[in-house]
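Human: Not sure, check this?
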Amino acid sequence: MRAQMNEHWHHLPASEVLDLLASDPAKGLDSLEITERQGAFGPNRLSPRRERGPLLLFLQQFNQPLVYILLIAGLITVGMQKWVDASVIFGVVFINAVIGSLQESRALKAIEALRRSMTSVATVLRGGVRLRIDAGELVPGDIVLLQSGDKVPADLRLLDARGLRVDESALTGESVPVEKQPEAMAHDALLADRRNMSAATRLSTRSAAWWWPPAMLRRSDASANCSPPPRCWRHR
């Protein structure tokens, strides 16, 4: 299936998308197929940013224009053999770096804790049964059902919908919710014009729908040229 992940999913008819992902729109994936795909693709989560160590955080506190000026002033006072003034200047710079690194470390820990607490759930069709699962458990080919107020749990390809609108202002800059439709789009359609696709974390503002996720959240499609494979989603 990995060979199919670079397909332009917005350009393919919904029926062909289902065939490529071996997904049944009436039943969804079975438990064996889900297990295999979870092992092949991993969790449906963004890769965590590489953490900066305490030493790097401390050194980054010196990368400021005001600190440069103070260090130059300190070197000048050393050259003038004004040891007390130099000690005060270097002491202030050092204490500022210590306090700044501690504050930044605490802020990063708070942000990470908040990220972990903000888990999202998805309504899926698996084995013919509608289930509520952690969005991180989604796999390519899952049938995802959305209704008004739901967050889009993954990058999705629309299968069916009636009057669906999705808030994509953070992605496209549009001030009003975008109406979605399941028909195939032109191969060279811009990201903002792909009305049969929806990016993760966007908010469904009207109606409900049926999608299927094409790819895991490894990177943002906003900066990619190719379309990842979508998860199926159907409007109810």
